[in-house]
Amino acid sequence: MDEPTHPPLPDENGVEDRRAARRRWELAKIARAEAEIDAGYGITGPELEKFLHDLLHSDQPVTVPPARRLPRRT
Q: For the segment 13-70, what is each residue's pLDDT rounded down to a tens digit?
């Protein structure tokens, strides 16, 4: 049986509300990124590799490369 044997405890501290709000925020960011990709915007592989390298090997803030219109893939 997949159903719990007792109802969940009330969320007195708002944890579930915060989780739900965070999930909505994350889903909105993902949807925006997918729309940009669908519109042909992104960064190239070398730009991504450099960004990830800098991110992993620096203790300073790293700037994300700007998304720009990429040529269509064939």
A: 788 888 889 999 999 999 998 998 889 998 888 999 999 999 999 999 999 898 889 8
DSSP, collapsed to helix, strand or coil, labels residue 17 as: helix
Assessment of whether the complete model's pTM goes beyond 0.70? no
Residue type, 41: Y
- What are the boundaries of each domain within the chain? 16-69
Question: What are the structure tokens assigned to 34, written together?
Answer: 């997918």
Is the dihedral angle over the CA atoms 47, 53, 54, 55 positive or is it negative? Answer: positive
Closest CA to 52 of 65, 40, 42, 34: 65
